[in-house]
Each structure stands twice: as structure tokens, then as C-alpha cells.
Amino acid sequence: MSRIEAGLDDPRLSTVRKLAAALAVDVNTVDDAITARRETQS
Q1: How far is the C-alpha of 22 from the C-alpha of 3, rounded, in Å?
Q2: Taking Cα atoms as reference points, which of 37, 20, 39 lies closest to residue 28?
Q3: What is the total count of domains within the chain?
Q4: Do the beta carbons of residue 23 and residue 30 sit within 8 Å?
Q5: Residues 6+ apart with CB under 8 A from 17
Q6: ∠ Cα 16 1 39 (to 5°)
């Protein structure tokens, strides 16, 4: 998780699905958050 948050790793779809389920949000919400984080780091 920390590697994803730090932008050092791109999670697999299966990981994104697990995160979405754990957070009780849509997969697109998790994907958008990861994408936004990546854009702020570049």
C-alpha cells in the first residue's frame, strides 16, 4: 500500500478491486485517486 501511495508501484486490477471492496467504494474511485496522486507527483 505504501508503494502505491508513494507512486512507486502500479497496482494490479485485482488489487484495486480489493481496495475498493475494503473501502466500500467503486473501483473507479480508487483508480481516480491513484491517478490523481500520480499526477501530483510528476
Answers
A1: 18
A2: 20
A3: 1
A4: yes
A5: 27
A6: 75
Among 15, 13, 5, CA closest to 36: 5
Residue type, 33: A
Residue type, 29: T
Q: Determine the structural domain holding residue 31 and report its residue range.
A: 2-41
CB 32 within 8 A of CB 16: no
Which cell is 31 given?
Answer: 483508480
- Could you report the per-residue pLDDT of 1-32, keeping only the tens digit for each? 889 888 888 899 999 999 999 999 999 999 99
